[in-house]
Specification:
Elements (H helix, E strand, L loop, with lengths): L1 H5 L13 H9 L2 E12 L5 H22 L7 E10 L6 E5 L9 H16 L8 E12 L32
């Protein structure tokens, strides 16, 4: 409508079901939020109690955001990830974390997952380079119950079922 007004067009015709796919997608998509916190640490010296506290904080924030959006959060699913890189590099590889993967004992498995992912992406292994974790990420998702959607199409004559005028305060008219 902004474009029409700037062009001096005062009548706009919208096709039937304009944007229905987008609207329907918004209604049926799962509720989700993504959060991240930076806490850089070189493997072998990562502050694991601090990382666990970050995830506790992010989970509480995600639950609060999702509750405000309205879904039943009893079935929320959390996905944890971390951005990892060889120290000094300017790009990271995102590595998924298991729920219990937040202790020093899990570092060898996490490093092996990083090395393999890095190798698959870049074709190299930097065995003697220190590895560092940078950003700790959380995605919280609540899948809504399946809902059937019914779309009613305009009549075969193509006549509009209804119309309304839109008021443009800047123009002072409908």
């Amino acid at each position: 409508s902004e474009v029409a007004r700037s062009l001096g067009i005062w009548t706009i015709v919208y096709p039937p079901l304009a944007g229905v796919a987008s609207s329907l997608g918004c209604l049926t998509a799962p509720f989700a939020t993504e959060l991240s916190r930076s806490m850089p640490g070189v493997f072998g010296r990562i502050n694991w109690p601090g990382v666990r506290a970050l995830y506790d904080e992010m989970e509480a924030e995600a639950l609060s955001l999702l509750m405000r959006a309205g879904p039943d959060i009893r079935n929320v699913r959390f996905e944890r990830r971390v951005d990892v890189r060889y120290a000094g590099q300017g790009y990271e590889v995102v590595i998924p974390l298991d729920q219990g993967n937040l202790y020093p004992e899990s570092e060898p498995a996490l490093k092996a997952r990083f090395d393999e992912t890095y190798f698959q992406r870049y074709g190299a292994r930097l065995e003697n380079s220190p590895v560092e974790a940078l950003n700790w990420r959380l995605r919280a998702t609540v899948f809504a119950d399946s809902q059937a959607a019914e779309i009613q199409f305009a009549s075969s004559q193509g006549s509009a079922k209804r119309s309304r005028k839109a008021y443009y305060p800047e123009a002072g008219q409908f």
